[in-house]
Structures are given as C-alpha cells and as structure tokens.
C-alpha cells in the first residue's frame, strides 16, 4: 500500500468517526420527565391510594402501617441531598417505587414512564433501596436463633406438623435470570435456562430462618448446603441447638434436633431425609409421609414469597450482584410482612417462577440412619396419627 492509498484510508477513517460521533443530547431533561413533580405517579397517586388500605396493600404488597414503619427505618439511609440544579427524589418515593418493582415484576421502562424518572435513575433507586432494606432488616427479620428460639421452633413443628425435634425444613429453588454478561455456562442449569439458586431453611410459621443466595444454576442442593456457612456451623455445633432429648415416653434414647429435607440432602444425625426406593415397608412409607408433612412448610414458604413478590414470576434482567441483592431483600421483606400482615392461604398452593434444584448424591451416615429408624418406630407406635394409614394407601 503506497502513500496515496494510506492517505485515502486515513481520510475515510476520519469521516467515519465524524459520522459515528455521538449526537448531542436533544434535551438536558426530557419534557416528559420535567413534569414529574406535577404529573408523576407518586404525585397523583400516592396520597390517594393511602386512603384505601386494601388497595395500598395490593399495590405495595404491605399494609400502610408496615410501610410507614419500614420507611422510618430506611429514611436516614436513603435520603438524598438537594442541589442547586434540582431537588433530590424523596425517600418515600424511592421506597414506594422499589416495592412496586419487587411486588409487580414490572420493568424499569414501565416505572420510567409512570413515575417520569430516567431509567438509569430508576436502576440506582432500586439498587440503593434494596441494599439498605437488607442492611436494616437482616438482623431484625433473619436473626440467628438462640437456644430458646430453637426450642420454640421445635415445639411449633411438633404442634403443626406432628414431627418432634424438628427445627427447620430446607430446600433450594432456581431463580430465573437473563444470562449475565460474560458468565459462560456457570448459570445455565439442567432445565435449560439461566438461574441463580436460593437455598432456604424455614420454621413452621413459613418464615425463613436462614438463606443462601447467589450459587450458580449448575449447582445442586446438597453441594450448596454443604458449602454454606450454616452447614459448617451446624456440623461444628456453633448454632446453640439444644442437646438431644427423647421423643418417646417409652424409649429413653436421646434423639437430636433435626432439619428435614428431600432426597437431595445427605442423611446425618442432623438432617432427616425420606427413605429411598419404591418397594418400601409400611413403616418407611409412614415415615416418609410424616417427614413430608414437615417438609412442605418450606414449599409453602417459597409459594408465599413468589406470590407476594412477583419479581420472581419472570427472568430478572439486572446485573448478577443486584440479582442477589434483590433476592435477599425479598426474603427479608417476606419475614417482615409475614410477621406484621400475615399471609393468604392461596399463596401457599403454588410456586410460580421457581424451579426445583437437581438432587446430588449424598451417602447416609450410619448414625443418621439409626436415628431415622427411631423416628420411624415412633411414628408407627405411640406417635402414630389416626389418618396416616389412609394417607399412604
């Protein structure tokens, strides 16, 4: 290539750069957004909807009183500073927008048009408010249980699920996401979509005791659980779990307090899972039925979570770190609203948006298997239920 050809190529490159140069902004602030303070959704809707508690609950997914308490907790953390250019967005509007996003599963662009805020501004609001909801509520709504708390959880499981010495039910679910940038196949699961995993333990009141968020979609329940900090503390006896006690008045053998799970979890003296196989004896079938009565509480908890916070009804299309923050926030809000406003029974019947996590292979320990036999014997003798035989036939 001679000098003339090089000059021509250079000239063409300059012309191309000029034509591709980013156009200057048409508006400093778009006229549609300039009218936010007079025509935005928060201005025209917020005060009116507060007058109708049922409508407010349906829109914000919590009662007016719960909203006000949460707002007071968050206000010091999410209040901005006014500048000479423009006043900041009020913390009340930030919280209202975030709850609508989490509760409806709408997209940023929908909030952009209804609240007359820039899409990037909406994104920053969601990130900021979710972060501080988790910071403020995690110790309040997801504290590490004390010995007295464990005993109360066990008492409630015995009362509601007829399973003694049970201190929780564990399971994991896939949360659908849009493929994260440059993530390869890490989040691609066996169901052929992209996800991260929410692993949770709940009590008999459908509230979460522990959550583990952010594991890749390719992982299985047992791997996530055994790698969690909760499992390490459980194995090291660092959770203030009470000492074993007998479950039978005739058998004095002390039985440890256990967490119930499905086949994905290894059978140990601290984890109870069902007997495997198809040709089971009556005693084993009864044990599996009784365990399922306790384990269904985690399934119902996921149902309440997904039906309340409908962000889980569609693939979440944000950065991976924000996905984890959103899931943790929803779990904290789940406990917060569950404690203050209760739940609807219908929400426990389906789990829209969540998918089961595949089972891993975990061998049962001899000690764990022996304790499972103690439970099975108890369920067919003095601990039997009048309807359990009809339920397994």
Automatic annotation (TrEMBL):
Residues 170-335 form the DDE Tnp4 domain. GO terms for molecular function: hydrolase activity; metal ion binding; nuclease activity. GO terms for cellular component: nucleus. It is found in: Nucleus. The keyword Nucleus applies. Its cofactor is a divalent metal cation. Pfam families: DDE_Tnp_4 (PF13359). PANTHER family: NUCLEASE HARBI1-LIKE PROTEIN, PTHR22930. Belongs to the HARBI1 family. This is DDE Tnp4 domain-containing protein. It comes from Parnassius mnemosyne.
